[in-house]
Amino acid sequence: MLFFRRSWRHAEVLLVGAILAPGQRTVSSTLRVAGLSQERRFVNYHRVLGHAAWSGRAATRALLELLLDAFLPAGPVLLGLDDTIERRRGMRISAKGIYRDSVRSSHGHFVKTGGLRWLSLMLLVPIPWAGRVWALPFLTALAPSERPCRERGLRHKKLTDWGRQLVLQARR
Fold first, then answer.
1. What pTM, to 2 d.p., does this model score?
2. Sign (positive/negative) of CA torsion 133, 70, 15, 83?
3. pLDDT digits (tens, 9 = 90+) for 74-121
4. Degrees to nearest 5, angle at CA 131 with 19 and 124
């Protein structure tokens, strides 16, 4: 089960609103697009992803099945991995680290940035009308740096370990 019934009603509105919302996709903008800007219990929509009971693993499975049915009904499955840094600051963000910014760096110029490192597993599919292969993400994991792991007493995993774990999850 992906969502419980009460959570699903709110998640459904947020999903449709996120698809239709122009610009930044915040909870407020999705409610505005869905015609619920005057909703009295708007806090329930803010709680959907943070506090509501739902299964990320079930969501990943459902999304992967939909992607495979739509784009690869038969044939080999090709997966790709990519990491991205979400630039976040603040005292309450505990998993942040300092990483090499691959977008702003070059061979001769090294740029560091702080934030959260996310590792995404993507389905690589050829899109005929685009004339190229698209990477469609379906599973994402936070890969914290060494410092937050040490502070929490956890074993630090390298990106390759995270990648292997994501591929094993997809295989299951």
1. 0.72
2. negative
3. 878 889 998 888 777 777 777 777 777 777 778 888 888 778 888 999
4. 65
